[in-house]
Amino acid sequence: NDYYGGDCASLNLDQIWQHFQEPNKPSDKFGQSRQYNIDLIPKFLMASGQLVKILLHTDVTRYLEFKSVEGSYVLKDKKINKVPATEQEALATSLLGMFEKKRFRDFLMFVKDYDVNNSKTWHKIQPDMPSSDLMDKFKLDGGVADVVGHSLALYRDESWLKEPASTTISKIMLYFDSLSHYGKSPYLYPIYGLGDLPQAFARLSAVYGGTYMLSKPVLGFTYDDSGRVTGVKSDDGVAKCKTVVGDPSYFTDKVKQVGSVGRCIAILDHPLVDTNNAESCQIILPQNQINRRFDIYISCVSFAHNVAPKGKYICLVSSTMETGDPKVDLAAGVKLLEPTLHKFYSVSPLFEPVNDHQKEGIHISKSYDATSHFQTVCEDVVRLYKEITGETDVSYIFVPKKKEDEQ
Question: How do 296-302 and 281-285 pair as beta strands?
Fold first, then answer.
């Protein structure tokens, strides 16, 4: 590529037109191409999530600027509502009925007081009990359970009901803690889009003697007699190395496909309906609410994050594919965007590594999933870091470095 980043690069209007092989050129109604930074796979960061902690640990944040996302919303009973995350919001929201509000408020208060190390806070909810028992305890069922599992705990399917109650509670607490930083939503997004992340790491790498090459083809790899990687082939020779880290596109013979993700990038000239005219937001459509096996995720950013001209919004609708047609799989989400100025549909395979990384010295990431946040990506980053270093306890990467450690 001639730009920073791979699958989740940020492209200007002309680049994204070329990327999707659109006919002709974008019309004047869109504004100037250079004012766009359209992420191919936009994802939000949890304010207190692992990725933010890793960025602080590496000190790459010196090259980055973030801004909070204005709102987090969920579909319930065919209506879009703000996700209630405080006791006050639980009582005021139109998302819940009168009796549901009190039960949900009691649940939120229980979660905030819960301490896995203090049995006095458990109230008969053992840490290893399934999350379904947690829902039964507070009589949270149907759509309310969907809000808890998919919008607060950010689970991707109904298997969460079998997860330990303590795991679900800790995920909800992460949402609460992230929300407490800014108050509107728990999410952050970089000014100028996600393309600034790899660019920032390239700048930090240069400080420590690293090299970053754009528009450089990877033509293959060299190995020693034992099958361990020794170099990366390019058009002007071989770059010697002991370890290679890359995404699945470089290692088609070392990965397996586990599904596909459908995506629709849309350019709008209006905010999304029922989001209080938010200039940025996330909407989750839980599977049970749209008669699907997988959730649909909608992310929206705009001129407020310097990714589009004034008055323009960039939205992404994504979900794990159930049919062969993304227009069918994403229909429930796309209709919430209309009318749109332009739409780009795509289907990407989901790959996971199957190689012997210890023998080969090749470490392969998983493909980006359909979620609109970085939680699952960060889990994969931690997996790779453990593989590469051989360490089992890497908790230190979530702790910001002290200034004296950098000297």
Answer: antiparallel
pLDDT tens for the chain, residues 1 to 407 = 666 667 778 899 999 999 999 998 999 999 999 999 999 998 999 999 999 999 999 999 999 999 999 999 999 999 999 998 777 888 888 888 888 889 999 999 999 999 999 999 998 899 999 999 999 999 998 789 999 999 999 998 899 999 999 999 999 999 999 998 877 889 999 999 998 888 899 899 999 998 888 788 899 999 999 999 999 999 989 999 999 999 999 999 999 999 999 999 999 999 999 999 999 999 999 999 999 999 999 999 999 999 999 999 999 999 999 998 999 999 999 999 999 999 999 999 999 999 999 999 999 999 999 998 898 999 999 999 999 999 999 999 999 876 545 54
Q: How far is CA 359 from CA 61, 108, 277, 388, in A?
A: 34, 48, 53, 12
User: Which pTM does this prediction carry?
Assistant: 0.91
Q: Write the burial class of residue 387 (CB in 10 Å: 0-12 exposed, 13-18 middle, 19+ buried).
A: middle
Q: Which two tokens stand for residue 268?
A: 């709008």
Q: Measure the CA angle with vertex 366, ends 363 and 372; round to 5°.
A: 140
Helix (H, G, I), strand (E, B) or coil at 381: helix
C-beta of residue 167 within 8 angstroms of C-beta of residue 375: no
Helix (H) or strand (E) holding 167: helix 165-182
Structure token digits, residue 117 = 């190390």
Provide the angle, in degrees to the nearest 10, between the axes of the packed helices 50-58 and 375-389.
Answer: 50
Q: Are strands 10-11 and 38-39 parallel, antiparallel or unpaired?
A: antiparallel
Residues 6+ apart with CB under 8 A from 347: 260, 261, 262, 263, 321, 326
Are 211 and 328 contacting, i.e. CB atoms less than 8 angstroms apart?
no
What single letter denotes the amino acid at residue 17?
Answer: W
Please give the angle made by the CA atoms of 218, 203 and 51, to the nearest 5 degrees: 90
Report yes or no: 296 and 332 within 8 Å, Cβ to Cβ.
yes
Q: Are 112 and 176 in contact (CB under 8 A)?
A: yes
